[in-house]
Automatic annotation (TrEMBL):
InterPro entries: MazG-like_dom (IPR004518), NTP-PPase_MazG-like_N (IPR048015), NTP_PyrPHydrolase_MazG (IPR011551)
Cited CDD domains: NTP-PPase_MazG_Nterm
The name this protein goes by in its record: MazG family protein
Molecular function GO labels: nucleoside triphosphate diphosphatase activity
Pfam families (UniProt xref): MazG (PF03819)
Every NTP pyrophosphohydrolase MazG-like domain range: 23-96
GO process annotations (BP): dATP catabolic process; dGTP catabolic process; dTTP catabolic process; dUTP catabolic process; response to stress; TTP catabolic process; UTP catabolic process
């Protein structure tokens, strides 16, 4: 990792790369999303020989943001690494402490309880629990998961979507929400399913002339 950081520092130096020097946390946002998505694509396609390169691109984004912050004096890569190591140790008391757990479900329950403790006991709002930068289908799936009890379940969503469906933004939104509900009811990730479907269509398409 230190070699990668040194490479980024060289690229950001006054006599380095003009493009790299111009980048900011804000300008790099689409690249972080893109590189993470490409790593997911490699996993979904079973292209494990390409995964090291894709994960390297994700790691590059971590290094890029760390060096930018280092220059501004806000944080460094050591802070990034230290934060995640501390969190992993803190949230796995059954591994690094004396807590006993029966199964993975209990691990998740403890994890959520520790997260609440870290926030001083404050419960996060639904909006705070779902990243705004998630794809629309993935975000809807997370929203349905969190709101399931309030909304009455997936079958209600599906039924409501086709009741008085209107050909406008609101109607299409209800229909897409129902599609996500249908996917979740059958254990399918709607974002991954649509990506795979689009990939198949593109691969089957005739080459452009």
């Amino acid at each position: 990792m230190e070699q990668l950081l040194e490479t980024m520092r060289r690229l950001r130096a006054p006599d380095g790369c003009p493009w790299d020097r111009e980048q900011t946390h804000e300008s790099l946002r689409p690249y972080l999303l893109e590189e993470a998505a490409e790593a997911v694509d490699a996993i979904s396609a079973g292209q494990l020989d390409e995964l090291p390169g894709e994960l390297g691109d994700v790691l590059l984004q971590v290094a890029f943001h760390s060096v930018i912050a280092e220059e501004a004096g806000t944080f460094s890569y050591r802070d990034v690494e230290g934060h995640i190591v501390d969190k992993l140790v803190r949230r796995h008391p059954h591994v690094f402490g004396e807590v006993q757990v029966a199964d993975a479900d209990e691990v998740v329950t403890n994890w959520q309880a520790i997260k609440r403790q870290e926030r001083g006991g404050r419960e996060r709002t639904v909006a705070e629990q779902i990243p705004a930068s998630l794809g629309a289908l993935a975000r809807e799936a997370q929203a349905q998961k969190l709101l399931k009890e309030e909304r009455g379940g997936d079958k209600v969503l599906i039924h409501e979507a086709f009741k008085g469906l209107t050909p406008d933004e609101a109607g299409v939104g209800r229909l897409l929400s129902a599609v996500v509900a249908y996917a979740r009811e059958h254990g399918v990730d709607p974002e991954v399913a649509l990506r795979a479907h689009t990939d198949r269509r593109l691969q089957a398409a005739e080459p452009a002339r």
